[in-house]
Amino acid sequence: MLGIITVDDIIDVIDEEASDDYSKLAAVSNMDSIDKNSLSAAKKRIPWLIILLILGMLTANLIDLFTETISQVALLAAFIPLIAGTAGNSGTQALAVAVRVLQLGTLRM
Q1: Tally of helices (H runs) and strands (E runs) in the chain
Q2: Domain range spanning residue 47?
């Protein structure tokens, strides 16, 4: 036996893995360096939000092109939530950053 694994070591590993998984869930690459400036934090997320906005607008244009068809085949309306997904994705990213800042206690007034 080379050493002893204490409960503190296990808790540290669990916390680190949970933090990494949470970062990946929210599509945030590096949560160890929290941005103190909201503009620098926004710069990291803007590309994803722009991509999602463009995809949402394309979806809305497609729906508009096929309004008559959608009124005849209501099943096509099942694709409409793709537009609302854009708001959900940006909200998830904002929530992940806010929760992580609160958990680390790095929020300064």
Answers
A1: 4, 0
A2: 37-104
